[in-house]
Fold Peptidoglycan recognition protein.
Amino acid sequence: MRGFLASSIGVATAAALALPLALSAPALAAPPLGAAAAPVTPAGSTQSLPLAPLGPAADRSPGFPGMSTSPRLPETRGLPPREVKRFSLVGVVWDDVNTQLFGRVQVRTRAVATGNWSDWQDIETHNSEHAPDLDTRESGSGRVRGSTAPLWVGDSDGVEVRVQAEPGTPATRAGARLPSGMRIELVDPGATDPVTVVDAKNGSAGTADEPAGDDKGDVVALPGMTMETAESSSANVPLAALGAKEITALNKADSTADAVLAGDGTLSAAARPYIGPRPRIVTRLGWGADESLRESGFVYTSTVKAAFVHHSASGNNYACKDAPAVLRSLYRYHVVSSGWRDLGYNFAVDKCGTVYEGRAGGVAKAVLGAHTMGFNTDSMGVAVLGTYTSTAPPAAAVKAVAQLTAWKLGLFNRDPRAKTTLKSGGGNLFKKGTNVKLNVISGHRDGFATECPGKLLYAQLPPTRTSSAKLQGRP
């Protein structure tokens, strides 16, 4: 697929892309541009707009107004220039999560600050590789959709979209078909509200793929605090006070006590020295997660054997001060647009090296994520915010990944330089039930056929393993 995106798509394809976008269905006609943009919604919002045909499908009857009748032109859908409510992140979703999108997705957006339209930008069509494992309650909820990677575009109030199926060859003549039910998702991250301190008691842990902590009798919130927020905040006690916006850094000696909180109270004295110093972690409350979006309760696995490193593929056009908003947008895209129970990643790291709590359930615990299809069980997912296929990851971000893995893997007595064995839950590289030997610190592409975490971030994994082990104090 990436070869297609990187190569010339031919004269016929270029002609199709150049056709007037005003040929879209009348229902999607653009309102007049230039009106004042709607204000940002404090709690965030998602606009979901259907994509209409822009060109003939391979099997569509000839004579579609203004279009060539050549059967070789690939199917094209999109949205003409349109003024919308303010948003900062975009992505495309479709009905069937098992249907892959083979083609090219491009957007243009209008900046609120300047009123100028951007150039066309590509959205990565990486499909299902970031997703819940097959045959889990999360994947079988009936809400999960197929989706592209999200793209951070900044504060915008206008959008134009075009999606073109991969063109056919002279041998096949007909190109790929686009998935049904395609929609553009426009995500407004909203603004954070002041934190209210809560009084809560941490619930008991559950087993893999069975929610735990659903009993709201275990959580008590002060006036003005939702039960969901109290539940999420309580999962990090006593690493941080209830209602804390961050979990403070600790030196190596003090970090050994965190192993008990990870559920490994039997960690041997010999293993305890190999827990790295705990890094500073911004909690979900700190980055403004709307806890009412996610499913209540938490899902745990038995241990953490490996860390999978990702890039969010959402672009590098963000300032570090915007990272919480980027994370709120990713969270909303994963839950509202893609249909997952919570943010897919267990942790996120921004370009300045700040570490953020991801999926709820407690940063020291073995929380089941939705980051590496087939290998979410007994692993953790760390996403570096940005796209690192052709852009080198900042040194601060790489250092933060080493610090985070030295601590979290150390809680479960894992050597970052070692190998481990995980059982595949099913994917495009390994059949379900296959025992696969992987690096304790792996890239997403090691468990799934994908470009993630981008070749330049992937190239940093060998020195990251060494740095992480050194932080653990291993010889």
In short: The first strand starts at residue 45 and ends at 50.
